[in-house]
Write a structure and sequence with these properties.
- This protein has one domain.
- It is elongated and about 50 Å long.
- The longest helix is centred in the middle third of the chain and has 27 residues.
- The N and C termini lie close together (4 Å).
- Helix content is 78%, strand content 0%.
- α1 packs across α3, α3 crosses α5 and α4 runs antiparallel to α5.
Length: 138
Amino acid sequence: MNKKKIIFAVFAAFVVMFVLSGLWHMVILGDFYTSNDVALARTEVNMLPVVLGVFILTFLMAVIYPSVYKGGSPLKEGFRFGAVIGIIWALPMQLVFHGIWNYPLSGVLVDSAWHIVEQGLGGIVIAYIFGTGKQNKK
């Protein structure tokens, strides 16, 4: 296990995913999320759990990636890996939110689709840091 690559991958993917998430949720689709938000939404976002959650997600992605990489281009394999993580992480959680809270199905679909893209891009960053070949198994 290459600890330096893992640390670099965690921080690089964290920055990419955190910035893209902020742009998506607050700028690009801010109005959508405001009008489709759950009744339990905070008036002010508590950023500490958000930062911690994204950090844990990128850490897990960086630790898991070397063990699932089978070869191929970092662009293709990184996006595939990240998209699968996005599906595993976001879709079930969004469906649970839909069942528990007054969270609309459109929110489930839009946010789940976004996380497939966001984690896909984070996966690309991680894949490029790890590169190709047998060094990923160390």
